[in-house]
## 1
Amino acid sequence: GEWSAREVVLHLTAVEEEVWHARLDALASETFPHWPWVEPGLWSGPGADTFAGALAAFAARRAATVARLDALDETGWARTGRHATFGILDVAALVRIAADHDEEHLGQIASG
């Protein structure tokens, strides 16, 4: 039942788009967004059929996430929303959760 390394990267790519981009966008445009638990599957798109393509797709989306974070000022970093499981989160907390999620799935690759 474990994912292959390519599938893990495709999942991380989907999470980048569907979770982190969506939440950062919501923080920028809504007063106090509420987020449900979301568990994306595997991203599909150009390049998804190879490991190199999956890595390129993830790298592009992670770069977009970093660009969003780089553009935040102090007020942007202080914005908060409510997650159904984690409660009230600011941007730094979202980043910590993203890093924990990455680490969990990268552990699958290392142990596989």
## 2
Amino acid sequence: SGRSHFGVPNTAEQATKVVDVRSTKSIDLVCGETVTFRNGDKTFSWRFDTVNHGKVDARKVAPAGFMTEPLMVYVRANDYERN
């Protein structure tokens, strides 16, 4: 189904942030946010819907060969979740 414990693929239309992987080392998100990652003319979008929150290296969800440098995504609970 494409689902992982880091979230699910999503569309660029749903993205709340666009991140250039060549100029960013880390980003902060709220659980449920969708990010479009850009590397030159390539992009992919991912909805970070994590069970335990915390940090995720974006390379774990990126398409193969999309990025080589780590980009840490720090996911915190949203206001509608119970901790």
